[in-house]
Structure formats: structure tokens, C-alpha cells
Amino acid sequence: MRDPRIQKLAENLVGFSVDVQPGENVLIEMIGTERDLLTAIVEEVGKKGGNAFVELTDRAVQSSQLKYATAEGIKTWADYDLIRMKQMDCYIGIRAGSNVNDLSDVPEDKMKLYNSLYQHTVHSEERVKNTKWVVLRYPNASMAQLANVSTEAFEDFYFDVCNLDYAKMDRAQDALADLMQVTDKVRITGPGTDLSFSIKDINAIKCSGKRNIPDGEVYSAPVRGSINGTISYNTATLYNGITFENIVFRFENGKIVEATSSDTKRINEILDSDDGARHIGEFAIGFHPYILHPMKDTLFDEKIAGSLHFTPGQAYEEADNGNRSSIHWDLVLIQRPEYGGGEIYFDDVLIRKDGIFVLPELEGLNPENLK
């Protein structure tokens, strides 16, 4: 018998996140071997009168494919999948690979080709802009290891996180989105961090289960040339199968002019992918009440309660500062006391200290009010 928590998640994904309507085409991409949620989603799409299309991806196979890929081959691959994506109304992406490092030995030049010719073309330009989409992880032993807990404990955590009352969260986000909409100057402070920039006239977007599961952020983007100062991220991050820690960026007039990390050479290679990679495409504030600690999974880590992320690369059209890049790398800074604390100021007014919102109108986003 199917776990009722899986059934509830499938119902939420199909009925709330992408809101499938009769006759709509829904592409469901499954990375990994788990099938219970995939089957439940296919059934829910059918119940809504939609047409389900399934793509099964194995990262180990994909790794071999990319090692020997050519620019011409990747472009043909992208052209082929772009035809399909253009026919889709909805996209549900499930990431459940058994080894998060499966792509770690793919040469960097091959990953750059894949990101620029395939990911950017099929996903950033077509799927993100022209479909109703949501992406999520699926609990398995690999994710439990990243979180340093048992598989059973991780499953309990996962369903608490993913089956949250996102409609309630959505209502609580209104005040923060409205405030960001009228804010000019932002300042972020904390250990190793003193960063200032403007978000004037850039849109602010609520994220409450319509694009990501889990969810829990409001995002905007800095005015492209306005960023000055230093940010020291305190969460490890996985990019193309490689772990980076202790990332520090120094900005001058919007550009990353100095970048260091546990692998300084490789991080600078990534930031040199194109001009936009050394500029920031997203600034977001995270507040999911059940996500407290990083697990090298961006979809979870960027929603951590008391966090923010400051993202090199492509800006979203909904909150567009004009930055264009083949990368979009969500790097996370946690400001709760156990991670060193920190402050966020809007127009010189303190709005969050040590991960807790201090303005009365924003208190609905503190953990005790979202659970």
C-alpha cells in the first residue's frame, strides 16, 4: 500500500504547484530509480484530465555521455529535447539520484558546454519561461547521508517539509514582498560579511510551493552595478558534483573581483564561464521553519530558516536586473546565532537579526508562525 504522505505530495504537486488543467501536457522528469512518487504523479495528472509524459534519467549514464560529448552532439541533444519542451504546458522534475557526485569526474569544459548549450537552452530559456513548473527532491539513503541522519528520520523530515501548509506561507509572504518592492538600499552584515547594494525598481517574487518543493523564500535581484563589499558564505555547496566550502566574494561596482574557496582555482573557472557569471542575478531571503541545517542540496539549503542566498549568474525574468549567464548558482549564508549570526537592513532599518524578523509586519514569517 502506498504511503499516504506520497499520495498527498503528488496531489499537491499536480493540483497546487502546477495546477494541471484538462488537456494539458505534463512532462515528469525522474532522475533516479525511485518510482512510487512518479507513479502517483502520473495517476494524479490523469485524474485531472492531463497528458503525462515521462523522462527517466540515470546520472551515472549521463556522466559517461557527457565525458565524450562534443559541442555538436550536445546542441543536437538540446534541439531534440527543445522540441518536446515546447509542447509541454507543465513540468515536474524529481531529483533522486543515489550518488550526488556522479557528475564530479566530468571535465569542466564538458560541463560548461552542457550548461550553456543544453541546460540554458532547454530549461532556463524554454521550461522556466514558458511552462508551469516545479522541481523537488525525493527522500532516499543518499539524501539521508547528506543530512547525517537515518533514512527513516530523513523521510519524516522530508514530508514535514514538503507537505507544509504552503497556502498559509503564501499569505505570510505578502508583507516581505511588499517591503522589498519599495526598498532601495540593502545592507547585509555578519562574520566576514559587509555587503551593500540596491534593489530599487526590481520586482520581488513570493515562492510558496509553485516552483520548488520545498519552498520558502522571497527573491529579488540587485541593481547590476550596485554591489560593493564582501560576503562570506557559511554553507558547503555542490556544483557539477564538486563540493565547495568557505566561499568568499569581494565585489566592486557589481562585479566579483576576488573569489576564494576550498577550491579557489575551480571556482574562478566557473565564474569565468561568461561575463554574467561574475555578476549577481538573484538576492533571496529564506525562512522554511523545518529546514534548519545545510545538506549540500540547494533546493533545501536555499530555504533554510534564517538564511539568504546571493546568486552568481542568470537573473529570473520575473525579477530581472538584466544579468545573463549560463550559470545560476544559489550560494547560501545562514544568519542564525549557531552559524555566527548577522543582520539584514532595508534602507538603514533593521528587518532581521540573527535569522529572526524583527519588524512586526514580518513576524508571520518566523518559524513558530509557519509551522
At a glance:
The chain is of the alpha+beta class.
Question: How would you describe this structure to a colleague?
Answer:
By secondary structure, this protein is of the alpha+beta class. The chain is built from eleven helices and 20 strands. It has an eight-stranded antiparallel sheet with strand order 14-13-10-6-5-18-19-20. The longest helix is centred in the N-terminal third of the chain and has 23 residues. It is globular.
Largest sheet: 8 strands, antiparallel
Number of strands: 20
Q: What strand order characterises the main sheet? A: 14-13-10-6-5-18-19-20
| Separate helix tally | 11
Oligomer: single chain
Unreliable sequence segments: none
Fraction of residues in helix: 25-40%
Topology at a glance:
Layout: H1 4-17, E1 25-32, H2 36-47, E2 51-57, H3 59-67, H4 71-86, E3 90-96, H5 108-130, E4 132-137, H6 141-147, H7 151-162, H8 166-181, E5 185-190, E6 193-198, E7 205-207, E8 212-213, E9 217-220, E10 228-232, E11 237-239, E12 242-244, E13 248-252, E14 255-260, H9 264-271, E15 280-286, H10 298-301, E16 307-312, E17 332-334, E18 343-346, E19 349-353, E20 356-357, H11 367-370
Parallel strand pairs: 1-2, 1-3, 3-4, 4-8
Antiparallel strand pairs: 5-6, 5-18, 6-10, 7-9, 9-15, 10-13, 11-12, 13-14, 15-16, 16-17, 18-19, 19-20
Helix pairs in contact: 1-2, 4-5, 6-7
